[in-house]
Amino acid sequence: MKVILVDSNLGLVRLWRQRFKDYKHVTVYSCSFISLDSHLQQTTRTSAVVSPGNSFGWLGGGFDLALKKYFGGSSFEQFFRDKLGQLYKPVGAATVVDLGKWQRGTFRYIVHVPTIVAPSRPFYVEERPVETGYNLVFNVTWNALMSLPEDVDTLVIPGLGTGYVGVPEEVSSKSMEFAIRLFFARDTISIELMNAVIQQFLGYRFDGFISRKCLDECTVVGIDHKALLTYNVCNDPISNLLPSDSLLGRTTDAYQVER
């Protein structure tokens, strides 16, 4: 499975390219969603795309408007909202919509993961970057990845929270990088350690949830457990939370993840 990051925001694209340099699972494009179609036709069998808009499924602005235009306009928007039950979906909650007759190109699914309830006011608060920025973008990215149907080989994700929601590009790109790298590393570490690094990234330090076995595993996979326990997302690199590069992509016998 691979991830394609696409946006016309050049500052965000530059940060993505820095963060995912030489990372085999991610390709970055600086273009519109519609322009991306020709690239996917050549390399992809079944794609999904993230709809990062509002909690009610309206496709009226930003990346969602591009989805609306690409898949069929107002009639498609009505279909999409009907598939969501026209119900409120909490921010960060992932709902997979099978496009059925609305499939186009390689796209079979849209993953609806709201980043805002409604575009009435920005969500990000500069004085509270963890709760209103890092947590928001990580949860949206992680839930989108974890909800994917098994037949998807490519997930397209735009910039998350960087439009009306107001999340700074640096905050959004760091959160997306952590979620994506952890997703592809999840078969390399135990579920317990995976939960521990998520807990620390989100700023919820609680040592009672981190066992001695978990700290021992840190040594095995190349994570400094002291750096883990004192992690501050605003200041520290995400490399402090992830297994060493030499272990990524393979699973040790000692910490085989059960699925």
Q: How are the elements arranged and paired?
A:
Elements: E1 2-6, H1 10-19, E2 26-29, H2 33-43, E3 47-51, H3 62-71, H4 73-83, E4 95-98, E5 107-112, H5 129-146, E6 154-157, H6 169-185, H7 191-201, H8 212-221, H9 225-229
Parallel strand pairs: 1-2, 1-6, 3-5, 3-6
Antiparallel strand pairs: 4-5
Helix pairs in contact: 1-6, 3-4, 5-6
Protein name: LADA_0G10572g1_1
InterPro entries: Macro-like_dom, Macro_dom, Macro_dom-like
Organism: Lachancea dasiensis
Question: Would you kindly provide a written description of the structure presented here, covering whatever features stand out?
Answer:
It is built from 9 helices and 6 strands, in the order βαβαβααββαβαααα. By secondary structure, the protein is α/β, with parallel strands linked by helices. The longest helix has 18 residues, at 129-146.
Compact summary:
The chain is α/β, with parallel strands linked by helices. The chain folds into two domains: 2-185, Leucine Aminopeptidase, subunit E, domain 1 (3-Layer(aba) Sandwich), CATH 3.40.220.10; 189-259, no CATH class.
CATH architectural name of the largest domain: 3-Layer(aba) Sandwich
Order of helices and strands: EHEHEHHEEHEHHHH
**How many E-type strands?**
6
Estimate the mean pLDDT confidence: 92
Q: Supply Rg.
A: 18 Å
Backbone shape: globular
CATH topology assignment of the largest domain: Leucine Aminopeptidase, subunit E, domain 1
Task: Return residue spans where pLDDT drops below 50 for at least 5 consecutive residues.
Answer: 249-259
Question: Order of strands in the sheet with the most strands?
Answer: 2-1-6-3-5-4
Name the CATH superfamily assignment of the largest domain. Leucine Aminopeptidase, subunit E, domain 1
Question: How many strands, what sense, and barrel or not for the largest sheet?
Answer: 6 strands, mixed
Fraction of residues in helix = 25-40%
Top CATH class of the largest domain? Alpha Beta
How many helices in DSSP terms?
Answer: 9
Query: How far apart are the first and last residues' alpha carbons, in Å?
Result: 17 Å
Structural class from helices and strands?
alpha/beta
Q: Give the count of structural domains.
A: 2
Strand content: 5-15%
Organism: Lachancea dasiensis
Protein name: LADA_0G10572g1_1
Pfam families: Macro_2
